[in-house]
Amino acid sequence: MKRVLIVTPNWPPISCPDMHRVRMSVQFFSKFDWEPLILKINPEEQEGIKDNTLNNTISDCLKIWEAGCLPKFCTSWFGLNNIGLRSFFHLALLGNEIIEKEKPDLAFFSTTMFPLMSLGRYWYSKYRLPYVLDFQDPWVSDYKGDRFYAQSWKYKLSQALAKLLEPFCLRQVAHIISVSPGYVDTLLKRYAWLKSDQFTVLPFGAAETDFDYLRKYPIKNSYFNPHDGKQHWVYVGRGGTDMAFAVRSFFQALREIRQQEPKKFNNLLLHFIGTDYAPGNLARKTIEPLAKESGIEDIVQEYPHRIPYFEALQCLLDADALIVPGSDDPSYTASKIYPYIQAKKPLLAIFHEKSSVVDVLHSTKAGTVVTFSSKNETFKLSQAIFKSLLKLITLPTQATDWQAFEPYSAQNMTHIMSTIFDEIIS
Predict the structure, then answer these.
(1) Residue 64 vs residues 28, 35, 50: alpha-carbon distances, Å
(2) What is the pLDDT of residues 6-64, one digit of tens each?
(3) Which of 11, 212, 242, 408 is most buried, taking the most CB atoms under 10 A from its CB?
C-alpha cells in the first residue's frame, strides 16, 4: 500500500475548516490503496473552538504523530503567537523521523497555516519527496476587510513573508489542489513556471457519515428550541461585507412579504450563527445591522461567535428552513453548501450567477437558488427572492437528486485526490 504524509496541524478536537478535507477523506484512502500518515500539532497548544465529538469520528487504526511547539509564554513578549510558526521546527524534525522510518511516497499539506508549506520544499530537497499543496484560501492576499487590521504591522509582516515563501514553495510543487478556480487563475498569472495541468479544483467533500452520526446521537443546540412552536430559519457560517448585498436583498424581500402575508410570517425567527472569525469579544455582528436597516430586526438574531462543528450541523438539522447568502465575488466557492443539502430541509440560496454553488444546486435540485450578476440589481434580486419565499414555507421537503449529488461525496473527492497522488508517483 502506498503512503502519504499529511501535514494538517488542526486536527480533532480542534473544530476548524482547515482539517475537514483530511478528516472526511482518511476513512476512504485505503479503498484506493493509500495509507494516510497524519502529522498534527498538539491541540492543547492551540486556541480556538474544540469539539470532542470529532474524536468519535476518527478511526483508532490511523497513524498519527503530534508535534509540540515553542511555549507561548516564551514568544508572546515579541508578538509571536502564531501556532504554525511556533511549531515549525518541531514539525520539520518530527517529519524527518516519519519520512526516514515510514518511507511515504509523497507529502500533502492541507492547512491555512501557509508558512508550513515550505516544509514541502525542504523535504523535497532533503529526501526528494514530492509534495502537493491544498489552497483553501489565498496566501498572498489583497485583503479588503477591516482597514485597521490591514494596516497593522502583523498583517504587513505576514504578507511580506507570504510574498517571499509562496514562490519558494511553488517552484518545486508537484500539484496544487484548490477549492476555487479563481485561485488557479491567480497563481497561473503570478508564476510563469506553473502549468494548468498542475492544478485540480476540488471542493471539500460532503460529510455524509457526520449526519448519520448526529441522527443516531443528536446533541442539543444552544441557540434555539426547535420544539417551541416557532418557525426557525437558520444560516450557519461566516458573514462579511462581500455577503452584504445578498443579505440586504433577502431582508428587503422578507420585509415586503411580511407586509403582504403577515399571518404566514408572524411566527418566524431567523438565526445567523458563527458569522465572524474573530475570537472572544472581538467578534462583531454584521447581520443584525442590515436587519435593522431593513426594518425586520424583531425577527433576526445573530450569534457572531464560531461554534463547534457538530453543533453547527445540529442547528441545520433542527431548522425548519435554511438560508445561504453568497458572496458578491463570482469565484467564491462555498463547500459549506453540501451540509445544507444533506440536512434535507427547504433551502434558499442567494449567489452570484457564476459561483459553482449555482451549478451544484441546479444539478442536484436540492433547493431554490436565486442568482445575481452585479450589485446594481438590488430591486431585481429582491423581487426574485420575494417569489421564492412563499415556495420556501410551502415545500415540505427537498426533492433532491441524490444520484446527482454523489460526485460531491467525500468518498468521490478522496478518489480524485488518490488519482492525483497516483499520477505523481508514477
Answers:
(1) 16, 11, 18
(2) 999 999 999 887 788 999 999 999 999 999 999 999 998 887 788 999 999 898 899 99
(3) 11
Beta partners for 133? 109, 176
**All cell numbers assigned to 180:** 476555487
What whole-number distance in Å separates Cα of residue 407 and Cα of residue 360?
10
20-29 pLDDT, tens digit each = 899 999 999 9
Q: Which three cell numbers stand for residue 146?
A: 477591516
Bridge partners, 321 (sequence order): 233
Q: Are 309 and 15 in contact (CB under 8 A)?
A: yes
Residue that is written with C-alpha cell 478556480 in the block: 181
Mark 123-148 as b/e (b = at least 16 C-beta within 10 Å): bbeeeebbbbbbbbebbbeeeeeeee
3-class SS letters over the chain: CEEEEEECCCCCCECCHHHHHHHHHCCCHHHHCEEEEEEEECHHHCCCCECHHHHHHCCCCCEEEEECCCCHHHHHHHCCCCHHHHCHHHHHHHHHHHHHHHCCCEEEEECCCHHHHHHHHHHHHHHCCCEEEEECCCCCCCCCCCHHHHCCHHHHHHHHHHHHHHHHHHCCCCEEEECCHHHHHHHHHHCCCCCHHHEEECCCCECHHHHHHHHHCCCCCCCCCCCCCCEEEEEECCCCHHHHHHHHHHHHHHHHHHHHCHHHCCCEEEEEECCCCCCHHHCCCCCHHHHHHHCCHHHEEEECCCCCHHHHHHHHHHCCEEEEECCCCCCCCCCCHHHHHHCCCCEEEEEECCCHHHHHHHHHCCCEEEEECCCCCHHHHHHHHHHHHHHHHHCCCCCCCHHHHHHHEHHHHHHHHHHHHHHHHC
Cell representation of residue 358: 449555482
Q: Is the peptide bond before 13 cis (omega within 30 degrees of 0)?
A: yes
